[in-house]
Description:
The structure holds 2 protein chains of 2 kinds. By secondary structure, chain A is α+β, with helices and mostly antiparallel strands. Chain A has helices spanning 16-26, 47-52, 70-82, and strands at residues 2-7, 32-37, 40-43, 60-66.
Amino acid sequence: MKSKKIILENESGLHARPAAELAKLAAKYACNIELVVNEKKINAKSVIAIMAAGIKESTQIEIICDGQDEDEALIAIEEGFKNKFGEDK
Amino acid sequence: MLKGRGVSVGIGFGNVVILRDEEIKITKNKVKDVEHELEYFNKCYNDVLRETEEMIKDLSGTELEIMQAYLIMMQDPTLTNQTINLIQNEQYNVIYATEEGFNSIIDLFKNMDDTYMSERSFDIKKKKNRVLNRLLNRKTINLGKLEKNTIIVAKELKTSDTAKLNYSNVSGIITEIGGSNSHVSIMARNHAIPAVARISDITKILRDGDFIGLDGQTGEVFVNPSEDEYQMLLKKKETFDTEKVELEKYRDIDPITADGYRAEVMANAGVPDDIDLIKTTNAEGIGLLRSEFIYMDSPTIPTEEEQFKQYKSVVMQMGEKEVIVRTLDIGGDKELKSFDLPKETNPFLGYRAIRICLDRITVFKAQLRALLRASVFGNLSIMFPMIATIEELREAKDILEDCKKELRSENIDFNENIKVGIMIEIPSAALTANELARECDFFSIGTNDLIQYTVAAERGNEKVANIYNKYNPGVIRLIKMAIDGAHQAGIKCGMCGEAAGDAHYIPLLLGLGLDEFSMNASSVLRAKKIITNMNKKDCEILANEILKMSSSTEIEKTLKK
């Protein structure tokens, strides 16, 4: 199991488009990927779960990857957050 | 023969497509064959998914991104988990399971304290209805992909419907409610599509595929017309088309009265598609570009960059010709997805248009900066709607000045001499026209709202339709005050309301001294013809006579003589 804490930089939070990008990215990996926000676990492969969590800008998020390709997955997901999933470009 | 009210002239023939707004009845029962129920759900759900994928193929840009996000939502098993569970483990029928299963997700979003997210519950509700319609074997209609010669039949058409409509394939519109001032009627006239409103139960009387002939002048609708009826309509259509050809002669003629008074005839635009239409009429510019289209259908407020691209494209298409962009005018009866406006008991007297912009300055500034940046690519002017007080005008201009300063310091080009005007659509503005005119570059009278605020009768409300009247002497005197106020300060006065394109009203407006007439593209050539065949002197005499009259009926009779 690998994990990393990051801060959400997307100004309008994880709304539909970035949430969809995140879920799409997470789906590429075999391992389980979860986000922990305010002690709540969210399945990062489900866009609905991500959106329903209503994560706002500046929220701390812990990314947890667990499974075969956890290393690559964590790097990719962290990179995705850094790029704000393509927002504001 | 059925009869309603003709709201957009012309004769149309075609096959009926009914837009049904039926309630979906949810039945609840237990089933024995769970496998079959599950299979049926999966089959229908996959059909809907495939349709969505098909739809996406024709999209691009922001629209594509939004739809892709929706598609990913639909592919997320979380969306259907509860439905499948209800079928598999509780043996519920597929309709009930879908209703309940999707509702659990809808509630999840609805209860979020984030307005953007709680609005996503509407998107999921739409998806639920699409799946339910599929399960019930009901057709959903793609308004962007209609067959040629379609007659649209609906209870009413909403702004969101007309925005998607592929007008070139629509040969007529029939609605159960609405009047000549309702949104769909204005759009129909804009696109020269014959339309009839107010035929009760028309969505139940007609069937999909029925052949129809309709007359948008008389309001007559012929279902599967007889040979005689067909010939009669065809003859009318020919006369109508001949008039159209006759009007073509005025395309390249400047609207100058017989005694040499030069008026300007411009067109109103609501969506980018209107520009092509406007160019075919050779209008002298766009007297009103409703900027709301930029905000429509977008789940979030468009960025400065997105807006800039759209404005730039419009002004470039119009070349040297002036494009007057009205800043965001929402509220009242116009809602936007990206704006969470509180429900008000009196929306027309409430938080709308410039009032919202002066309150939400970030939104306003993004639009103003985008407009300023686009101003170097053509002839763009800015117009503020719903100005009631001079303070509002000053405040709006201050914000515009701030934007200019910002752009200068960022070394971004804009037209330093950009013209700034206001809409005169509130009686207080018309009454203080002298003062307002000294602080802006032009006026444009918005008759639709001016009438409504002057006589305190809302447009679209059939019960007070006789009071909502452009022939009201009070309204006409306010128009005169606005024009006189503008001229005293040496600025131009235009009109962009429906009245500017009205054949009976144009002589009065000419007589009152209106400089610029902006109207639906479909009225431009006729207006040019009318003006060219008028004498300004005669119009002035007529106007003086009208100004002495005390009753709307008398004024209407005189103008229609």
